[in-house]
Every structure is written in C-alpha cells, then in structure tokens.
Amino acid sequence: MTLQELTDEVVTQEAVLREGGGKAGQERQHRLGRMHARERIENLIDPGTKFFEVNLWAAHKMYPEQGAIPAAGVVTGVGIVENRRCMLIVNDATVKAGAFFPQTCKKVLRAQRMAFEDGLPLIYLVDSAGAFLPFQDEIFPDEDDFGRIFRNNSVISAAGLPQFAAIMGNCIAGGAYLPVLSDKILMTEGSGLYLAGPALVKAAIGQEVDSEDLGGAKMHAEISGTVDFHEPDDAACLQRLRSLVAMLPKDPDFDVDAGIPEKVPTLLYDLVDADGKNEYDVHELLRCVVDADSFEEVKPQYGPTIVCGYGRIGGHAVGIVANQRQHSATEEGLQIGGVIYAKAADKAARFVMDCNQMQIPIIFIQDVMGFMVGRDAEHTGIIRSGAKLVNALSNAIVPKITVIVGGSFGAGNYAMCGKAYDPRFIFAWPNAKYAVMGADQASGVIFDINKKAAQRDGRDLDMEELEALRKQIYDGYAEKTDIRYGAARGWVDGIIEPHRTRETLIEALVCVKRPQPEGRYHTGVIQT
User: Fold this and answer.
1) Could you give the CA distance from residue 92 to residue 403 in angstroms, rounded to a whole number?
2) Integer angstrom CA distances of residue 28 from 9, 24, 155, 206, 329
3) For labeling, which of 24, 227, 303, 422 is most exposed (least CB within 10 Å)?
4) What are 47's strand-pairing partners?
5) Which residues of the chain are modeled with pLDDT < 70?
6) Res 443: pLDDT
7) What is the pLDDT of residue 507?
C-alpha cells in the first residue's frame, strides 16, 4: 500500500467517525428540537472558517463490548468565533447520550490543557448523560479522571481565561459542576441541570418531582439563579454565545509575511513510503513545508542524522529539529538514517537551548528508530549525550510542536519530543508507527520467550504451530504500532494528511504564539 492509499483509507474512516452516532442519533436530536454536535459547531463558528479539530480518533475500538464510541462522544478543537480563536468542547449526544467514558475524560482534559497553555477562551456546549456507570472505576477517582475537569475549570477561571458554558440538553450528576464552574452559563428551554434526576431523587429521599421543577431552564433562571441566560432554542443560544464572545479583547495580530514552500506539498507522497523501509532526504521534506529560501541549517556536517536549523512556516519564525532518514558518510564511518548518534544528540541539545534563548517555537519532525547501540556507541558517551538532549527538551519553555512522519521508536520518541515531553500539539501521518521497537524486532523477542516457555512446559511445537504463533504475535504487535491505535489513546492529537502538514503547522503556530495566562492566587468567577 502506498502512502497516498493509506492516507485515503484514513480520510474515509475519519468521515465515518464524524458521523458520530449516525443518522438515527442525529434524527433523535432533531425530534427533540436540538441540533447535533457538529451542527452546533457549524452554527457557532464564523462562516467560511474551518474548525481545527483535535483527537478525532479518541476511544476508537477501545470499548468493543459497548460498541463504537466515535470520537469518545465529544468533539474538541479550535474554532474562530467573532474573529477570536476559542477552544470548543462539545458533547455529542448521538453517542451513548453523550456519556463520559474514560477516554472522554482524557480528551476533555487535553483540550483544557491546550486552551490553558495557548491562552484560548473555552466554550463548552453541554449535552451529556454524565459518567458511563459500568466504567465508573476508571472515570471517577484519579488525577486524570472526571474530577480533574472541574479542578481545571476553577484554575482556568482564576488565570483569567474566559469560559462559556451552554447547557443544550442533559447535564446530570457530577457533570453539572462543569457549567456552574464556568464564567457564564446559558441554558436552552427543555434542558435539565441537576445533581440527581427525578427517578434517583424519588429512590433516595422519596420525593416526587418533575424534570422542569427539579432542574429546568426556567427554574434555574428564575428561582436558583444559577443560569445567566435562558434561551428558547439552540439557534438563539449559539447567537447569544457569539455576541458574548464578541465582547472579548481581540486576538493578537501576528504581523507576518507568509511565504510559500519551495516545492508543492503533494510531492511528499512520492518522497516517503508507507512502510518506512526506504531512505529519503529530510531536506526534501522540509522544502514542502518551510517557506522557500528561509531555512538556515546549523552544523550540517556535524551529527548529520539530526538536521537542525531556523526557518519560517507561513511567515512564523521557528526552530526545526528533524531526523535525517538518509544514511550519512562521516569520519566515524557510515551512520544509519533515523538513528541518533552522540554528536547528533549533542547538536540537537545545544540547538534546543538556543531556540529557548531566541524565544522561538520548535518544530520536531520525527522519523526515528532510536539511539545507536553497541561498544563504539557506548565509547562515544551515547547515554550522556542522549541525557543532555532529554534534559534540554524537558526544561524548554518555548512552545514545542511535533509531527511524526514515520517511525517513533523507543527513547528516540522521548528525545524527539514525544507526548511525555509536553508538545503543545503532536500530529502524525497515517504511516506513523509508535512503539518501544519495530514489529519485526519485538515480535521476534516475544516469539522466542513464548517458544522457550512452551519448551519448559514440555510442549514441543511443530513448524506449523511455530509459524502460526509467530504470525499471531507479529499481527498483534503490528496492530498496536499502527498510529490509529495510539490516536485512540490520545498519544497524538490528530492524524493529518501529509500534504496538509504545512497548513496544520501554521494553524498550530497561531495558537501557541498567543500570550499565556499568568497564575496568581485568587478564586476567579464563582457562584454566590
């Protein structure tokens, strides 16, 4: 399969994910007089602008006993509302009534973190049945679970970032705290906001009460005083949101002279293969991404398996750290493309430090097999050099954005700013592979372990059984290295079409260059 064919397959699958719960779920929303999640987004953002979605693949194939949970039942991403970029977090009630699964929590937390780090106002469109109770033990108690969302609401408000919440359907139990911890609350007629629904209230205290009297929009607008704006329907609610967002300060104006790349981005499909076995010159990749005549390479002859340099993408100044997949002849001998050697790590570490000195974002282009091993590598101090790079990366204060264009294996993932090293955004091409090591090597190791275990148990496997075992192990490991597996678990923020790498990076750069909020102790906006 070619990279173009693999990309087409992923694009087709993403179209299905965007359907959420499908036509039946969408028609149910319409019968209730409500829009579905993506209609709400379309009516909220400015006409003609594009929604910059993140984590579309969340929860993909993760809960087979519960069926499909497209996008984890919540849509997140950056949208432009009244010429202001905002982080949108929108429950999709067509997917299990918008219930929260473990991965739903993690997806919302990631969106909140992005908004906090990039200084983006948040808009929550709430339509959720609350926690999915069969998984309550994986949703409720930990620091990356449901409760952390409400903690973040409070911290974000105290930092001065505006939060708007619109209750446009169900908002039940613990989930009710999310809108009430936001700065402004809107609620549509027919929606419900309560800690316990009528049935649970009757079971708990024997009181009989209908939904409207218990937690309807009219009650909260007139009696509890919880709701700031009582809206008749979705359309009025979204228009009110637009009017409120229009009162915020204007977005910063990045006065940049946007250039064009030296080569058309579609050439990337001819440069990089789908299985990652062929060499290529990463300079050719950069010519499809970076503004023409803007790339200034640092130490090109030193440590050549990592390419470092300054450049511009859409006019934005950046530092670039990229794995070179072409083999290189050096004084030390032939160096294998995609492998990090001591000198390459030293060069990259110093470059990361210098980008922090210059206060410019760093773009990491990952296609890495890991660090070089063996006696010669150890004699060069490979561990010391790798640690230096990891230290520089860990303490970087400038925004980091990572794009995985091939392999992302072992400690190479760490050194090239994998998810554990706080990239503001991390994207991957459809051919990306994410694992401790490649499927061939890993399955061979696991096969030998299982074969020896069978022999210890007195079982002699014939050749046919051995080959079946080998294939089973390889297929299982290969499935887990597929980037769709990683994207389902939030290891990347999105799978992008290679020819859209440049435009994706430009949008991400506009977000990460926004001023960050300054933390100080106070409580933000709370209900009185």
Assistant:
1) 28
2) 30, 6, 36, 31, 64
3) 24
4) none
5) 437-439, 441-447, 450-451, 461-462, 465-466, 519-528
6) 63
7) 96
Q: What is the pLDDT of residue 414?
A: 95
Residue whose pair of structure tokens reads 């993506």 in the numeric block: 38
Contact at 8 Å (CB) between 245 and 84?
yes
Q: What is the dihedral of CA 179, 185, 188, 193, to 10 degrees?
A: 40
Instruction: Provide the whole-model pTM.
Output: 0.93
CATH code 3.90.226.10 region(s) in the chain: 3-245, 265-432+492-512
Homologous superfamily assigned to 265-432+492-512: 2-enoyl-CoA Hydratase; Chain A, domain 1 (3.90.226.10)
- Cβ neighbours of residue 144 closer than 8 Å, sequence gap 6 or more: 105, 106, 109
Q: What CA–CA distance (Å, rounded) separates 384 from 377?
A: 11
Q: 3-245 belongs to which CATH class? A: alpha beta
Q: Strand 362-368 to strand 400-409: parallel, antiparallel, or no bridges (unpaired)?
A: parallel
Burial class (CB in 10 A: 0-12, 13-18, 19+), 228: middle
User: Rounded to whole angstroms, how far apart are CA atoms 289 and 106?
Assistant: 31
Q: Which of 372, 373, 308, 303 is nearest to 344 (CA)?
A: 303
The total of other beta-carbon atoms located within 10 Å of residue 444's CB is 16
Report the alpha-carbon distance of residue 292 to residue 37 in Å, rounded: 40
Strands (E), 410-496: 425-428, 433-435, 494-495
